[in-house]
Amino acid sequence: MHTPPEKRTIALFNYGGGMRGLIPAHLMTRMEDMTGLRMAEMVDIFTGPSTGSILNAAMTLRHPDEPSQPKYRARHMVRFYEREGAEIFPADSFREFRGLMRDLNNRTLKFNKFDSILKHGHYDPGNLSAALRALLGDAYLKDSLRSLIIPTYNIDGQLKVGEDRVVDHGGRAVWLKNIRTGYPAEAARNTPDVRLYDAVMASCAAPTYFPCHHFMMQQPGHPENTYISGIDGCIFDNPCITYMGAVRQHVPEDHKLTMIVLGTGNTNKSIRKDDWNRFGALGVVDPANDLPLINIFFNGPESALLDAFEAEMKENLFVLNKPLLGPADDRTPSAEIDDGSPQNLKRMRFFAEDILEENAKAFDQICHILVDNRDRKSREFETRKKKARMKNFFTLLTGSDDTERREN
Predict the structure, then answer these.
(1) Which value, in Å, is the radius of gyration of the alpha carbons in the chain?
(2) For a 10 Å CB count at each end of the chain, is N or C smaller?
(3) Going by C-beta distance under 8 Å and a sequence separation of 6 or more, which residues neighbour residue 274?
């Protein structure tokens, strides 16, 4: 008796990390080169925050002339980071200083002119905005070729109730989803009406680097507009949380879920107790100390969930990543998310090559699983087309639709 091929749903998680998004772009380029296929042909669900959302949105963007095909290959995203990085993060040795001085001004001096001169310590969001508009155009989230999940954190939960009353519901995590697995016909009416550019821009609004991104969207089934003031999805998102909060419930019951996680370098450093005690209240958030408390907030939830996540996923979890610790050398990029220097671009390529070399067996397995998934979906598509042709032919001959009874 012929055993049908195992049904599988593949979710791809791309980490955040600013310019370090070039690393998973290189990893995906190698996958496409090895398989001869595009990521959107092989992956069912694309998810991940910040710079990961840039990659995911681009890889699922429909080609304007061939809507059933993706517009970009992974190599296009390598060029995107290499071309746009220096514009998005222009070299500025005083940005960190301005941010610290603004904080001092807020606490003590309260000089408006001084505050204006310091420019809040942010990069100009117009550069990122222009790059994303050119990349994504006028597409909407509902237009994505495959399931796409973009996380952002809405800092402003104030809702106007009546003419003169405002209710504060507090900030909260927001998953912007276009889920096309299982029931693709329902995707359009279950997807928020939001521009892809706005969703990605909000997910990339890294605190201290960019201001929050304010935009409007319409939730399914709600005629009124919803306003979001979004900051970096990395605030809460990681592969463990994505699995529990955004992916698992959308996997069909008869499918096995496989998650592929592409990293941007693990930057979670240990801290000696003497150093921690020496930092004091302000030192734990001081960039001069590598923002130790901020790093703990980002990495703590993932470390708490990782063992349980790996135990549940077992052999269906693949992680391509490695530590990014210590000073940069010829093959180790800077841990800074805003280093778009030519030297660092080269180091990120070498870093991706080292990840692939250290995970050669897992990489081969990933490519095999990806191709199998694409082949299975192609067979299912051809079967559906054949049944549709048989149904139409029988209807023309008999004037009635009795295909299922005849097949049985």
Answers:
(1) 23
(2) N
(3) none
Paired tokens of 134: 């050119």
Rounded Cα gap, residues 153 and 229, in angstroms: 8
323 DSSP assignment:
B
Report the chain's mean pLDDT, rounded to a whole number. Answer: 86
The answer to whether residues 15 and 55 touch, using CB atoms and an 8 Å cutoff, is: no
Residue 57: name the closest of 71, 78, 41, 42 by CA: 71
- Work out the angle at residue 125's Cα, subtended by the Cα atoms of residues 119 and 130, and round it to the nearest 5 degrees: 145
Read off the pLDDT of residues 179-233 as tens digits, 9 standing for 90 and up: 987 555 566 678 999 999 999 999 999 988 999 999 999 988 777 888 999 999 9
Distance CA 261, CA 264 (A): 10
Residue among 207, 205, 223 nearest 215 (CA): 205
- Cα dihedral sign for 234, 237, 238, 242? negative
pLDDT in tens, 299-334: 888 999 999 999 999 999 999 999 988 777 888 999
The structure tokens listed for 6 are 């195992």
Rounded CA-CA distance 149/43 in Å is: 13
Q: What is this structure's pTM?
A: 0.86
CB under 8 Å to 231, separation ≥6 — which residues? 152, 153, 155, 202, 205, 206, 207, 212, 213
Amino acid at 191: T
